[in-house]
Each structure stands twice: as C-alpha cells, then as structure tokens.
Amino acid sequence: MFKGDAAKLVTQLQESVARQQANLLSQAADTLKSSSANVGALALSDAARRIESAAHSGDTKLADTMVALLFTEYERVKSAWGLKIAHRSSTE
Hints:
Blueprint (H helix, E strand, L loop, with lengths): L1 H17 L3 H17 L3 H16 L2 H32 L1
C-alpha cells in the first residue's frame, strides 16, 4: 500500500511544485511525511516535512529544490524496499 501511495504522492509533489500550487504541495507533503514515518522511511519523511514547511512559507524555490532531493530519497527507499522483499522471498 505504501509503495503505490508514495509513488502517487511523489508525482503530486512534482506537479504541484511545477505549477506553484502551495496548498496542494503542502497537502501531499503532509501525507507523505506521515506515511513514510509509519513505515520507517525517516529520511523521506523529513524531506517531506521540509517541503511542507517551504510550501507553508511560500518559498517555492526551496520547495522545488527539496522535491528534487525527496525524489532521490524516494528512489533509495524504493530500491531498499525491493531488496527487502526479494530477500524475504528467497528465505521463505
């Protein structure tokens, strides 16, 4: 569930920052912040928190930079998640 939701939220973040839609950006960041923390992806959660903060303050330039950094972290989490699932499958 997290994997699919996170992918949609990352896309929403990218689209919202490109369109400078601070309210939508803040909402997507808040949701991703919470769901990432729930699965232990704390660096991803922190990046989402920073985006949420930038959106609240209207700093779209910082938000744009942070979305790019968040995407890198998201890819890392996605890769680690895949490795964990593959490892789990090979030990069963």
